[in-house]
TrEMBL record, chain A:
It holds the Pfam family BPD_transp_1. GO terms for cellular component: plasma membrane. This is Spermidine/putrescine ABC transporter permease. It comes from Sulfitobacter alexandrii. It is found in: Cell membrane. The chain crosses the membrane at residues 55-79, 91-115, 135-164, 185-218, 238-261. Belongs to the binding-protein-dependent transport system permease family. CysTW subfamily.
Length: 277, 264
């Protein structure tokens, strides 16, 4: 079969991805089981030591918490934007988009300024007479969570918003005309229709959180390290094969959790669709 | 017809969340104009001390130039490959469009640390570490999905019959594309290039693994934040916040215009 001429245009992109995404991924898998002979010792070490299991479990837990928080906080925000007239929607979306494209390093640094010993929050608390000593907020799990949610929230708002724009608002009006109270119309008509897009957003946020590196390293303490931080630590100590094994585990855990979340989300969606809230 | 209006509570909630997203970033700007030795809020005295420190420190300037060089090369690569791929996707038969889009956007779903580690291990074996060109290509691979998504969305809005008309009137395939399809596409390509530039310019972890000798700007900021937080970082952040905001606003306006004017 002859390839369509237009598909040749895809070739440079395919080569770039092959050389810098696909090939390195395979090499990483290879490095995780050959050191230099075939061995699964790195994976054994990973699953035998409590420290590493702790880090894996924490990475999943934190990512889930961030994904759920972003969804709960972001959904009403997207709903609000969706209710505005067209022109104002564009302006409000700008407010969400600009921080989204800001460097994560800078946004994390900003949290150091806000939460530091002499930072904004501590100065405000002292000025208002609530505290006499600076409160330790940096290097806590709370700081990591607050910053990760702030960094990823725009993505969930945009995903929810995109799902909501597909919904015909006349459906809500129809429900109202037929006697539904506003709350009922939202819960029985609007929410189920936007559920699929919201779930997609939740999965995206979860996936991005799993690989987070900068924020836990700068705002968290030792107890907040995630898999990506462990990988960097191992690379610094030149344990490439062990780092590779961690990378493989990170990818497998992420994919497995995505499958689980999607299945669980679908089940929940079906129940909501059937029985209302 | 009755319109749906947000309640006062929802309006208040919206602005509260916007403040949560934007305020921590904005607050860096006044801090960067402090003239005290340490990070403190509110600053006691204002001045451009830390901006001067940034502009006169050869290490910071070298890091900025390295980042700039890598980002420009990376943008050229990702914009070229991504736009061509966007064309291939939007002009290929319907049933191939979504598999091709999935293939081209796969880097979005892979954690950067995974890509960084893979590229690093491969580069180690091939003795390619510490190469700015290798880094630019790796950044291009990560940025390309955004280019593909933006350009293919814009191309789909362009009426292919204009290009066909150019062909009928005797233009070759390349010329027909250049006269009929390329001009309305330029805003989208420029927008995609701006996004791609900042993906590379802000990227830390791949650079951190790959580069040992020379330093990019994020690597410099990272090193500074890890050791002792000097207020120079505040000045650099202040600059980056302003530059990114302006560039992203331009890119977003261009992207919107590309989609809006081309829509039938």
């Amino acid at each position: 079969m002859k390839m369509r001429p237009i598909l040749w245009l895809f070739l440079p992109a395919a080569l770039l991805l092959a050389a810098f995404i696909v090939l390195p991924s395979f090499d990483l898998f290879r490095a995780s089981v050959f050191d230099p002979e075939f061995s699964t010792k790195h994976f054994q070490r990973l699953f035998e030591r409590g420290v590493y299991l702790d880090v894996m479990w924490r990475t999943i837990r934190v990512s889930l918490a961030v994904a759920v928080l972003c969804t709960v906080i972001g959904y009403p925000v997207a709903f609000f934007i969706n209710l505005q007239p067209r022109r104002r929607q564009t302006i409000l979306l700008f407010l969400i988009l600009i921080p989204m494209w800001m460097s994560i390093l800078i946004r994390t640094y900003a949290w150091i300024v806000v939460l530091g010993r002499d930072g904004l929050v501590n100065e405000a608390l002292a000025a208002l007479g609530f505290t006499t000593e600076p409160v330790q907020m940096l290097f806590t799990s709370g700081a990591v969570l607050a910053a990760m949610v702030q960094i990823l929230l725009p993505i969930q708002i945009l995903t929810c918003y995109a799902a909501m724009t597909e919904i015909d608002l006349d459906l809500i009006r129809a429900a109202r005309v037929l006697g539904a109270r506003p709350r009922q119309a939202l819960a029985r008509v609007f929410l189920p229709l936007s559920l699929d897009g919201t779930l997609t957003g939740l999965v995206i946020i979860f996936m991005l959180s799993m690989g987070f590196f900068i924020t836990p390293a700068l705002l968290g303490g030792r107890q907040d390290r995630m898999i990506a931080n462990l990988i960097e630590f191992q690379v610094q100590r030149l344990n490439w094969s062990f780092a590779a094994a961690l990378g493989v585990v990170l990818l497998v855990l992420t994919v497995a959790m995505i499958v689980l979340l999607r299945a669980g989300g679908r089940m929940l969606a079906r129940r909501i669709l059937k029985g209302g809230l | 017809m009755q319109t749906l209006k947000p309640s006062l509570l929802l309006t208040g909630y919206f602005w509260l969340i916007v403040a949560y997203m934007i305020f921590p970033v904005v607050i860096v700007i006044p801090v960067s104009f402090a003239s005290s030795e340490f990070l403190r809020f509110p600053p006691e005295d204002f001045g451009v001390r830390w901006y001067r420190a940034y502009f006169t420190d050869p290490i910071w300037i070298a890091a900025t130039i390295t980042s700039f060089r890598v980002a420009v090369l990376s943008t050229l690569i990702s914009t070229t490959c991504g736009t061509l791929a966007g064309l291939a996707i939007s002009r290929s038969p319907q049933r191939m469009q979504s598999p091709l889009t999935y293939a081209a956007t796969v880097p979005i779903v892979i954690p950067h640390i995974f890509i960084a580690l893979g590229v690093f291990i491969l580069a180690l074996r091939m003795n390619l570490t510490d190469s700015e060109i290798a880094l630019a290509f790796a950044h291009a691979a990560v940025a390309m999905p955004f280019v593909v998504l933006i350009t293919s969305a814009a191309i789909r809005q362009i009426d292919p019959t204009i290009e066909r008309a150019a062909r009928v009137l005797g233009a070759g395939p390349v010329r027909a594309f250049r006269v009929a399809t390329l001009p309305p596409l330029i805003p989208a390509i420029v927008a995609a290039a701006i996004f791609a530039f900042f993906v590379s310019f802000d990227e830390l972890i791949i650079a951190q693994f790959l580069m040992k000798g020379s330093e990019t700007l994020p690597m410099r900021i990272w090193a500074d934040l890890r050791l002792d937080i000097s207020p120079v970082v505040a000045a650099v952040s202040g600059l980056l916040i302003v530059v990114t905001t302006i560039a992203m606003a331009c890119a977003e306006i261009l992207r919107r215009r590309a989609v809006a004017t081309l829509a039938p």
